[in-house]
Write a sequence for this structure.
């Protein structure tokens, strides 16, 4: 099963997202792990990041995209039992890493994200253990909401959002969708749509500036939420795609409003209807991204700027964001509501669901 | 009489639009033919399209810009009588073509456009027989409205709009304006402004995605309506100009709203006030156009993508468009109403009309 | 004291703005002169304009950036007394110039701007005598408002705004802010915020097209007002920066609304929060600027186009602007009101003021 690759030339292609069949078929209500056991199925990226260690490659101490070692590490769990065990123990351990995970209060509360309290700002990293390619499930989205809630209340002046690994975020996990919707269409379509709505609302309502650092591909909802963030810095390695129509989905994350506003209706629709993929440079020249940096110095450039920004007056930052955002706040709330209603309807209707299933099934059997 | 050429360097220039004086002076209410009889007066294009046959050049079988032979052909009628005759017979024939026009139901209902029902989509081609350079008259605009109405009701998933010839659309026909407004200013200014309003409304209200393929220059109203379409693909050969102020016209087609939204107020106003011409690449980098293709493969690229888009789920396409458009629908309706009111006032006022006439007269005598 | 230089590479840097300490400390209510007496302190520009005479360099007849001799010349007054004297005499004189200033009615009414009535348009030039780098004080802003009021009432079809010197406008004068706010925080914060509000409103409400020619750096409020103008032409030498957060200020000039609209929220916020500097080319490709011209022919290019635009019909120009602007008029009024309320609060609060002072003090002591 892959995201639909558009018919454009280019070195990039959309990563294949594997279905973890146990999750799909047993209809378990417990959080499922969508990460495939065999690592040879991992996302093949056209350019492999040399300097950022991937624990799968060498088993050495693993570092996040943004430079310092991850407190909770990156886990490879082959069953929900193992996961459960790890959680109960209050720490995670992967033998292949030979790496003792330091655990602190903020990290132990989250499984699929890492939260770091830095001087003047909070750093949230997507680091999904239950899905591949930082794909989103309702559970992961709830963790992000909780992290945003915490950062709103503490003394952070701003929030930095980034990702561990080579993919920023691949959007909603299709295998999760299929698994749940085939179990209880009516109930699950509501539950998932509500989770998307709350996730997007958390971004809309967050009052401090959100800086987002895009290290790699941002797909679907992972791309849609970028205009809800305030400053968007991207690595040359990043690219952007929202292949809604091809995936039998309607736009989400307020992209039906923000994309036309930012990119112009012609390009926005090409992205939403035709799955047009934008390179980092294109996204920057069209306004989705503030600035593009070389992959090798991306982390330093981002950290330098975030620290400088965090030295500004907190009131000035928050009030400036308020001035910029307050005028579109209610529009975004409405758009988000409508988009999620539409997704719910689509998932709830036999026809819409069939279309989604047949699309995903075709993709799977194509491989 | 020419559109005003702006003072910018560049290989392109705006095509001279000839007045067919019989149409201007006799005030006939029957549809007039503005195409000049002598073909030597045709629009001189800087790059002549080699592979797309123009029947005037060689009399061979003529093909449309988008590849397959046109069912209704391209006619050269030297009087409204001949036209009338052809219409009554239910088919058209041009001796120079040695080409028997195949006639089918949908084609015979239109004179200045061609409508093709393809698999999954409707293809509307501007192919004006009564004006040069696909200029618009109320009659032609009504044909487009009817075609859009039909496509809205049938099983098409989307609409493809393109043009026959080397010019996409040169906007309102100035000689028509002069001819009619000098006959009965009050009545005709209302009638023409209403036709513009309904034409623009037809685009605003069309619920399925509209893909537009711009093979050559798009001027005035022909450029203004592009932001009302959903995906805009252009050939390298296309360029865009809305020289409203220079033509003593105010903006139309909602461009007073959509152009600033898409291009930024600085460039939008330079286009509206100073007649700034945009190349295809400029229009693309500023958001008016989704993507630019090489002229030689333009048709294939467009068809490939349209067919792919037409394979998407119809509900998803329509609902996605609804999400993108519903939020600006009422704004666009208001803007269109105001713009057309302003045009009516301008055409109706002695002063406004004199300004338009003297401008067009000066242009004619300059030649 | 300097504007904060952002951490980006590039040949440009923000000009040092000197505090004239007499103005700061005595709290005089009379207009103060912030221009430093010694010319060696002048803004060092990376590229000195060779062909545009600076009277300080050679004492020859001085010409404005836009080509013709300035009627009121450029004054170098070393005390407010000398200034006062000059004003009472009704003319200005600078011995070093050996230049008798021709005085006409419109010029003698302004001190920090020059107003020229040209055929079909009014030309307003920022030429501040009381501040360096065309920085703005409430008094200068009031002069601009008066000039706009006059141009609205006379037979000009449009207004051309440009600057004398190498800097277009460096925004609010920080030394003025410090001087006044440290004298009477409550009263002065209201007075200055009201002056900003009225200045911005004058642009919002001006009904004829405003063309602005940016010969050099445009900073803070000097950059913020550009989207309120209609056509923006810039010299290659121009650059744009609104380092609000770094200066402990919130956005002004409606930039909290117009910048995200034009540049996209990602770049707009990078400018407002991180002080991102835009080159002329960047500003053009992102929509803030209509077109960029070479510095050597900038004046001619602008004048050519302005004259062409001034040959258009006045009603068409005004009604076109009305169509483009009326839809956002009330939004802009609201945004301006909110922005100025926020500035007032910030200046009025002990904390906000301390932050501004400490920032400016640090900058001064860094030198």
């Amino acid at each position: 099963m892959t995201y639909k690759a558009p018919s454009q030339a280019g070195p990039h292609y959309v990563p294949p997202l594997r279905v973890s069949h146990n999750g799909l078929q047993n209809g378990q209500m417990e959080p499922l792990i969508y990460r495939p056991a065999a690592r040879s199925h991992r996302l093949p990226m056209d350019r492999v990041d040399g300097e950022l260690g991937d624990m799968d490659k060498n088993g050495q101490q693993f570092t996040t995209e943004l430079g310092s070692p991850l407190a909770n590490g990156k886990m490879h769990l082959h069953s929900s039992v193992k996961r459960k065990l790890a959680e109960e123990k209050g720490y995670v351990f992967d033998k292949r890493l030979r790496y003792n995970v330091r655990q602190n209060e903020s990290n132990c509360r989250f499984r699929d994200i890492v939260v770091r309290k830095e001087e003047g700002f909070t750093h949230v990293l997507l680091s999904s253990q239950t899905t591949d390619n930082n794909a989103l499930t309702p559970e992961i989205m709830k963790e992000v909401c909780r992290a945003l809630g915490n950062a709103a209340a503490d003394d952070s002046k701003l929030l930095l959002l980034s990702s561990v690994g080579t993919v920023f975020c691949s959007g909603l996990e299709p295998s999760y969708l299929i698994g749940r919707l085939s179990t209880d269409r009516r109930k699950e379509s509501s539950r998932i749509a509500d989770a998307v709505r709350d996730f997007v609302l958390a971004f809309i309502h967050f009052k401090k500036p959100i800086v987002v650092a895009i290290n790699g591909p941002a797909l679907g909802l992972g791309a849609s939420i970028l205009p809800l963030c305030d400053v968007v810095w991207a690595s040359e390695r990043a690219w952007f795609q929202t292949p809604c129509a091809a995936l039998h989905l309607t736009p989400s994350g307020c992209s039906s409003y923000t994309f036309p506003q930012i990119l112009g209706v012609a390009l926005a629709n090409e992205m939403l209807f035709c799955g047009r993929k934008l390179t980092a440079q294109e996204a920057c020249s069209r306004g989705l991204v503030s600035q593009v940096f070389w992959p090798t110095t991306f982390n330093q450039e981002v950290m330098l700027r975030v620290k400088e920004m965090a030295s500004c007056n907190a009131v000035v930052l928050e009030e400036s964001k308020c001035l910029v955002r307050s005028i579109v706040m209610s529009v975004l709330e409405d758009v988000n509501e409508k988009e999620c209603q539409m997704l719910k309807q689509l998932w709830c209707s036999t026809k819409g669901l069939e279309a989604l299933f047949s699309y995903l099934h075709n993709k799977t059997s194509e491989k």
